[in-house]
Amino acid sequence: MSSKYTIALAGNPNSGKTTIFNHLTGSRQKVGNWGGVTVEKKEGIARFNGVELNVIDLPGTYSLSAYSLEEVIARDYIVEGKPDMVVHVVDSGNLERNLYLTTQLIELGAPLVIALNMFDEAQNKGLEVDYPLLSKLLGIPMVPTVGHRGKGIDKLMETVVKTIETNDSRSRYLQLPYGQEVEDEINDIHKLIQATNGLGDQYFTRWLAVKLLENDSVVTKRLELVGAKSVLKQAETSREHIEEIFDDDSETVLTDRRYGFIAGALRETTRMSKEQRQTLSDQIDNVLTNRLLGFPVFFVFMWLLFHMTFLLGAYPQDWIETGVNWLSNVLVVVMPQSLLQDLIVDGILGGVGGVLVFLPQIMILFLGISVLEDTGYMARAAFIMDKVMHTLGLHGKSFIPLLMGFGCNVPAIMATRTLESRRDRLLTILINPLMSCSARLPIYVLVAGTFFGAAAGNVIFSLYLLGIALAVGVGQIFRHSLFRGEAAPFVMELPPYRIPTMKSTLIHMWDKGSIYLKKMGGVILAFSIIIWFLGAFPREQTLLENNLPPGDTVSQLAVSLDADQPHHLENTYIGKIGYFIVPVLRPLGFDWQMSVALLTGFVAKEVVVSTMGVLYGVDEASVDEETAMTDGLRRSMKSPLIAYAFLVFVLLYTPCLVTVITIRREAGGWKWAAFAVGYELLLAWGVAFVIYRGGLLLSLG
Amino acid sequence: MDNIIRLSSCQEGDRVRIRKVEGEGIFKRRLQEMGMLKGAEIFIQKYAPLRDPMELVIKGYHLSIRVEEAEKILVQPLQRVRY
User: What is the ipTM, given to two decimal places?
Assistant: First the structure.
């Protein structure tokens, strides 16, 4: 009979924790979120000598305080999830800081095994670690590993299983020595906690005492809930007492003592055999973040990332579209003309195609991001751009998602995952749709080309600038209203440059792709079918006899409209909604056709163009297709002023369906998705109104 | 203690020792967890191309902080290394 254990991986960011996780679980992973929050939770199954191990990848943290969501999640899981073993992955080349988390894990009473990861790198640096002695000093089994080559992983697993089965790890733990004065205070608090019933075993209660002394907000709240007033009062007295003795706050004193303990342990067990000199990583960095070369190099990388994602991504996108079209054609021929055929071809197949077309971009972008992150360049990109982004109220790491937004907001919003602070992340998500994505360009080209002639280029450029300017403005407003409070400090580790492994990069890429397919594909498909329904019903009898030409996947809705006659569209639900919203859009100078076109643009913005084609009676077979479209636009929009207001509205109004669903997924809830749609609609209306009415006042109409 | 300056006024190649970390809350806490404690030695590796943020070496690893944050860290210069 095989036994089954649960192990949790804990460790600093950049400690190679995820590489070890990938190595252990391979493709047997599932990615989800921790209950109720948007912090990613990864789980997987590992097998070792007939033992099945359920592996949980905890968020990468430097500590276990109550200051960040990730840290609270990690420690809650260790306390409440009671894993059989916590495997603490440590960067051997950076022991002092990594072991700080160890002190926290020891205090939490977690059963521990330490993986001394990247052991080879540390040795090459000239570091000699007497890890058997260090292991003895800390009372924790230690195994040297090289995660990306899979070295030491079997030994690690063996040690984990053995330690679980002999069940002895915790009893060997030392108590961190804080010094007499601090110990006295801890004991005072501890005694009172022990006198309060139901607060847990001895390890846990001492941890509570230490945390209270550190003024930990989560633990304080917890004790308030059980009404342990005397404990809280003692904690306050103790904190004051410590402050008096040490002339510093108790948090600082405790942190200082932990680092002191680590330094002591390392002094006895490590030695640098080589002279510390400029490493290869430093030399690379001198070029990549050089005062003169830093920006040019950065822009070359960004240019590559953008072009790979959106130009290279266009090829597989074409194949997908061709494939879906081919399938539609086959179905049209094979199936009898019917409502069912219509539903399958235009509704379902169109919807599936609409989901799939984004996949190549998402995969390529995340391949690129994964390479940037795994090599260590991502942190440098943030380092270089932070000054600019900070003036805009954002973080250096916000740059890449915003840049990608000019291609497509969907992968761009998924790319905000690189931002650690929730506040920065939400802000970057919310303003991302203001970056004018490539799907809006065909509308700009058509309308600006019709109304502005030679100046069309400048008009289009002004739209991009307007989007950026509004993003900055809106960002500032949100920062001072929605996301008030203390900003997360920009204290960011710059990890050494490393060569990423193919395996980990590909797994990273596949993770994102599968999240998109599994978590969002279904919702997108469902909505596509609903919108198809709204555009196709109620139906007229004559329509059923029309032979519907299957169209490209993204604009499948327009195609289904295409088959209809203009007079028919008025009778569909979309047409009716269009009539319904005309009064709202009339103050902007928009008519019914424009309203319906905007409405259909919710599926995908470029659909606005094909809808207009249908509404202005452009017959695709006619030679004068272009003239018909231009005439229609001229009749509808009447003046360049209205045309410009319309373009601004297209730039700013609701993000497309897939983007909305991505926001919901990435920001954590419909609430944020609805908020994004709401504020953008208001913004679009407001700005278009000012432009139209302002223009009229200035007699530009 | 004489000769105390702010970390933000240090230059590339300076080596300093932390005397005091001002500020509070999450900022101070995060710095301390990263090892920025009184007595710790810092090497100022470089400034970003736009002179903000700055890159430090502390406890053998590289850390980047904004200049406005470095203003809250009081240090004592140890020696100056010029390339």
Answer: 0.93
